[in-house]
Amino acid sequence: MMKRLAIHITLFLPLIFLLVQLFIIEVNDPVKYIYTISGIVSTVILFFSITISLIKKRVNLLKYRRAIGLWGFFYALVHMINFVVFDAQFDIYFILEETFDKPFIYLGMIAFFILLFMAATSTRKLFRKYSKYHASVYLALLLITIHFVMAQKTIDIDMFCYIAVILVIGYYKLLQIIVKNSKVYTS
Ligand code: HEM
């Protein structure tokens, strides 16, 4: 119970941080700032959600994976709302033009709809039926990685660090899948 509460509080903190920066500190370019914070926080949470099964022997957070995944979706939703409400100001032509003109926007859109589908089918009842489609999180993460690399105007050392972390997680995930499949095959 305490652990669940601690997880919720931790994942709620970036939102508080964002609101403080926007309303108290008043950053220069709020729209860009919301994109950066919500995009990075969502990406980190979602990558963390797929590493939970890798670290389960050391720290078992499997019980909280759904809650963590939903927080990842929540920040993706903030990112999407920022696009529709503050960036596009509900201008449907702007939304369509940006979406079809800029490949990084439609890759982000596809990723967002995959996450929306997963969030909507994460209830116990629906998860039983749709769990096999939840592997599509890997496709979403691939698209998100391409999306955020393409969104950068300059390539700096931080980005290489992000990519290195993503490759390490991807490598261990792939090993895990190969070992799991070979066990199914031999038993
Ligand atoms: C509805 C679909 C999406 C749209 C329209 C969108 C739009 C954008 C835009 C315009 C930027 C550039 C911001 C700037 O620096 O000016 C951006 C950056 C970014 N987006 Fe998205 N995005 C979408 C989906 C996603 C999703 C689903 C994720 C992750 C879960 C994500 C993660 C990121 C990240 C990490 C950045 C880089 C932030 C930075 O370094 O400043 N985006 N997005």
From TrEMBL:
Coiled coil region boundaries: none
Keyword Cell inner membrane recorded: no
Keywords noted in UniProt: Iron, Membrane, Transmembrane, Transmembrane helix, Transport
Tagged with keyword Iron: yes
A Pfam cross-reference name: Ferric_reduct
InterPro entries assigned: Fe3_Rdtase_TM_dom, MsrQ-like
Membrane topology: Multi-pass membrane protein
Domain spans labelled Ferric oxidoreductase: 44-144
Regions crossing the membrane: 7-27, 33-55, 67-84, 104-121, 133-151, 157-175
Subcellular location: Membrane
Protein name in the entry: Ferric reductase-like transmembrane domain-containing protein
Organism: Arcobacter roscoffensis
